[in-house]
């Protein structure tokens, strides 16, 4: 009998433990996972709630409509993207099958016409829906400049970012290849199967070796950490030797001879900037890169930016340290990051927070919230910024960046050729980079361009920059 009672107690104990485990599991899911399920883009109750209100309009900076919502029934609507592929990565998409992305996702509750979250509306059974049309978004995008950037990239893979250096407003943001957000159902299989990844917003999520455009950051670090570097002379014999098997060379083996800091920057000497990287050491160069927000999140209004990467090396890794100083080794950047580098130099050393949305509007066009420009901090001294502006002006006027020159406008910039690991089955060319700003005396636009496998010297990217600056300032 006692054994029977003991066995019953054991069974009850097992059931008690299982019951506690089940309650704990259900509680955990309710607390931590139910919000994710409720806000999931595949939650059909959420889409039913979303379709009760005609979605708000997304505009460019001049209040030109970029989207148009139309009711197709009492419980459904269609979102039309008026510029199609040109603005696809900047705006994103809303689709009941494929979900939301970009601004459509980040500002979903506002575009539905409520400051309340969608989840709270699902459980607010007593509240009447007063708003029939959602709130609008006024972006910072310049429609004309966006179209110029899209056309200038042509059939190349790559990205273009243009920023107002004084405010951080994103004037243009193009990624190619693109896709048509108006026709996702018919084209989705082809989009996701495309090895060139049209859905990837290369402007903020593409990570590339920067090549020589990174010498802008190395130059800043040298000016702020090596006394008198601007007046030093350097011997460039075409090759920087690390040991018997490894060395760093200038492009095409060019020997520049005895040159100063300015000439080394204007003509993009790998030997000099590799040597400067070794003299600075990994720690100092990494510290400067991190002032430009490498290895950390960059706050932004309306978009999320992938972290750019600057690696750590031991002091005896001379080759890697030198390679990192010329934007190779394991250095990886987004085009947005390099646009911010150019913008910071143009803005006298102050980095502004990038912003894609400048105002939230009521359905009747009344301003509900203005998003003000924000400083992210002083990256370099005003003196260093002034020196860099002059150096970058020289690159276009006398150096490698001549393809970016615009008649009647003084353009400043830096070219870049970035070697990269491509498809092992075929030989690939280097990426073509250019970063720059204009006009020199009072910069109002800063640009970063990358053309994947666009060739040496940054010529192709510089030409796109020329088109952009000409269109914006002329």
Q: Could you characterize the architecture of this molecule?
A:
With 474 residues, the chain is an alpha+beta fold. The chain contains 16 helices and 19 strands. A 5-stranded antiparallel β-sheet has the order 8-7-19-18-17. A hairpin with a 5-residue loop joins strand 10 and strand 11. Helix 7 packs antiparallel against helix 16. The longest helix has 38 residues. It is globular and about 90 Å long. About 5% of the residues have low confidence.
Structural class determined from secondary elements: alpha+beta
Mean of all residue-level pLDDT scores: 89
Assembly type: single chain
The total strand number stands at 19
Helical content (DSSP H or I, runs of 4+): 25-40%
Distance between the termini: 100 Å
Supply Rg: 27 Å
Report the total helices.
16
Quote the beta fraction.
15-25%
Strand order of the largest sheet: 8-7-19-18-17
User: Low-confidence parts lasting 5 or more residues at pLDDT below 50?
Assistant: 34-40, 115-131
Principal-axis shape equals globular
Give the biggest beta sheet: 5 strands, antiparallel
């Amino acid at each position: 009998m006692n054994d029977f009672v003991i066995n019953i107690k054991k069974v009850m104990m097992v059931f008690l433990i299982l019951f506690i485990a089940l309650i704990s599991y259900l509680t955990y899911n309710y607390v931590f996972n139910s919000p994710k399920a409720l806000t999931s883009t595949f939650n059909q109750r959420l889409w039913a709630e979303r379709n009760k209100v005609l979605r708000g309009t997304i505009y460019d900076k001049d209040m030109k409509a970029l989207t148009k919502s139309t009711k197709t029934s009492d419980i459904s609507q269609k979102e039309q993207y008026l510029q199609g592929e040109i603005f696809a990565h900047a705006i994103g998409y809303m689709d009941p099958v494929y979900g939301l992305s970009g601004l459509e996702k980040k500002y979903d509750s506002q575009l539905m016409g409520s400051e309340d979250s969608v989840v709270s509306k699902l459980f607010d059974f007593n509240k009447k829906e007063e708003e029939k049309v959602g709130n609008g978004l006024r972006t910072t995008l310049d429609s004309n400049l966006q179209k110029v950037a899209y056309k200038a990239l042509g059939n190349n893979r790559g990205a273009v970012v243009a920023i107002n250096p004084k405010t951080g407003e994103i004037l243009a943001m193009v990624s190619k290849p693109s896709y048509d957000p108006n026709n996702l159902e018919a084209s989705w299989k082809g989009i996701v199967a495309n090895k060139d990844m049209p859905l990837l917003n290369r402007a903020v999520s593409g990570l590339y070796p920067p090549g020589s455009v990174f010498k802008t950051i190395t130059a800043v670090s040298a000016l702020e950490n090596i006394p008198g570097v601007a007046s030093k002379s350097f011997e460039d014999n075409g090759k920087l030797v690390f040991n018997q098997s490894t060395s760093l060379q200038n492009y095409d083996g060019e020997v520049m001879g005895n040159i100063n800091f300015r000439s080394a920057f204007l003509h993009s000497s790998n030997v000099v900037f590799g040597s400067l990287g070794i003299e600075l050491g990994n720690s100092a160069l990494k510290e400067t890169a991190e002032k430009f927000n490498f290895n950390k999140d960059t706050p932004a209004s309306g978009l999320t930016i992938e972290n750019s990467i600057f690696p750590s090396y031991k002091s005896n890794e001379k080759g890697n340290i030198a390679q990192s100083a010329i934007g190779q080794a394991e250095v990886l950047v987004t085009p947005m990051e390099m646009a911010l580098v150019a913008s910071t130099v143009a803005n006298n050393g102050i980095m502004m927070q990038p912003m894609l949305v400048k105002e939230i509007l009521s359905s009747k066009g009344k301003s509900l919230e203005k998003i003000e420009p924000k400083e992210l901090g002083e990256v370099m001294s005003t003196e260093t910024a002034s020196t860099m502006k002059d150096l970058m002006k020289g690159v276009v006027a006398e150096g490698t960046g001549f393809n970016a020159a615009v008649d009647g406008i003084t353009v400043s910039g830096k070219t870049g050729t970035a070697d990269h690991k491509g498809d092992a089955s075929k030989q690939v060319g280097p990426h073509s980079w250019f970063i720059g700003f204009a006009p020199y005396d009072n910069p109002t636009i800063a640009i970063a361009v990358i053309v994947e496998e666009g060739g040496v010297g940054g010529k192709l990217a510089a030409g796109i920059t020329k088109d952009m600056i000409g269109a914006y300032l002329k």
